[in-house]
Specification:
Elements: H1 4-16, E1 21-30, H2 35-47, E2 51-55, H3 62-68, E3 74-78, H4 102-120, E4 127-128, H5 139-146, E5 150-151, E6 165-166, E7 171-172, H6 185-200, E8 210-214, H7 221-234, E9 240-241, H8 245-248
Parallel strand pairs: 1-2, 1-8, 1-9, 2-3, 4-5, 5-6, 7-8
Helix pairs in contact: 1-6, 4-5
Organism: Azospirillum oryzae
Protein name: Polysaccharide deacetylase
InterPro entries: CE4_u4-like, Glyco_hydro/deAcase_b/a-brl
């Protein structure tokens, strides 16, 4: 990475002010134990970084719970129901969009929470991660009625409403619309610097954690390398805080 200088300077400003910026890491599409998951869990453990793991309920296997047994700082989250696209033709992919009746969407959300609670017990956080980071406008109230207390999508977090708080992600390590490998490191660091600066200067809520987004099952060498370098730089930095994922959903 060639643009760390700007990020380092921005973090130094936070340190000079005696402030710390909260970060968190969310990884999507977990279903079972795998070498890729083992690598992610080990990397987070080495860096002492909590992980929010978004699990697809319809496909979740007992091996996943077994893989997480030795990793108490990993928090399972509910990733839709089956990660199926129900969007209308020509629309962006969406599982919980307005095309389907609200009662069906709420029932699937309730089912996902129930299935994963059976698998993970009390360590499951009632936080809903909509597949493709989008859902119908009426879903927050439906999720609240289904027993959820938080949502995580992508981009600036909306204000809490309907009993639902938002804990979004902001930096996606994968170039989904291009090479489907790692995003350009300099572009990612420019975004990171902007997220930090906007919080420090009051253009964004300073209490909103900066969320990193990964998908362990599709990582190639370049994506793993990008994640490693980010964690090497940010883990343990005096201006960076990595709260437990459960604490973020109550902020």
């Amino acid at each position: 990475m060639t643009n760390w200088t700007a990020v380092d300077h921005e973090l130094a400003r936070w340190t000079d002010l005696g402030r710390r910026c909260a970060f968190w890491l969310r990884d999507d599409d977990a279903v079972a134990a795998s070498p890729q998951l083992d690598r992610l869990l080990q990397r987070c453990a080495e860096a002492n970084i909590p992980l929010g793991l978004a699990v697809i309920p319809a496909d979740a296997k007992p091996s996943l719970a077994q893989a997480l047994a030795g990793h108490p700082t990993v928090t399972p989250l509910v990733h839709g129901w089956s990660h199926a696209d129900h969007a209308a033709p020509g629309k962006k992919k969406c599982e919980f969009g307005p095309e389907r009746p609200a009662e069906i969407r709420q029932a699937e959300a309730e089912r996902g929470l129930s299935v994963l609670h059976t698998l993970f017990g009390e360590r499951l956080l009632p936080l809903f991660v909509p597949p493709w980071n989008r859902m119908a406008a009426d879903m927050p109230s439906r999720l609240s009625a289904a027993g959820y207390r938080a949502v995580s999508a992508f981009g600036p977090s909306p204000a809490s409403r309907d009993g639902i708080s938002w804990v979004n992600t902001h930096l996606d390590l994968i170039d989904w619309h291009g090479i489907r490998s790692a995003v350009a490191p300099d572009a990612l660091l420019d975004l990171l610097c902007r997220e930090l600066r906007d919080r420090r200067e009051g253009r964004r809520d300073a209490g909103e954690p900066i969320g990193l987004l990964t998908h362990h099952l599709v990582h190639d060498a370049a994506i793993w390398d990008l994640l490693d370098r980010l964690l090497d730089r940010l883990a343990g930095h005096p201006a960076v805080d990595w709260p437990a994922v459960g604490r973020l959903s109550r902020s």
